[in-house]
Amino acid sequence: MNKTAVLKFSRLATSSKKRALKRITLNLTLDEAENLEKYCEHTGKPAIDVIRELIQALP
């Protein structure tokens, strides 16, 4: 059984420029979703921040 986490991003406007963001749909196994939830509970970080930090750490 797959559990789906949907991350929605909308367009954000700043006073000097517009920054387009993308919407990402992430399909996780139940084990992966539970692992992410446990990590978030342990660190106190929301899933979006954990995923964003992992992406930013990519070479």
In short:
The protein is α+β, with helices and mostly antiparallel strands and 59 residues long.
Shape: extended
By DSSP, the count of extended strands is: 4
Biggest sheet architecture: 2 strands, antiparallel
Q: State the end-to-end CA separation.
A: 32 Å
**Number of helical stretches of at least 4 residues:** 2
Overall structural class, as computed from helix and strand content, comes to alpha+beta
Strand portion = 25-35%
The domain tally reads 1
Description:
With 59 residues, this protein is α+β, with helices and mostly antiparallel strands. The chain has helices at residues 30-43, 47-56, and strands at 2-7, 12-13, 18-19, 24-29. The strands form 2 sheets. Strands 1-4 form a two-stranded antiparallel ribbon. It has a two-stranded antiparallel ribbon with strand order 2-3. Strand 2 and strand 3 form a beta hairpin. The longest helix is centred in the middle third of the chain and has 14 residues, at 30-43. The model is unreliable at 1-15 (pLDDT under 50).
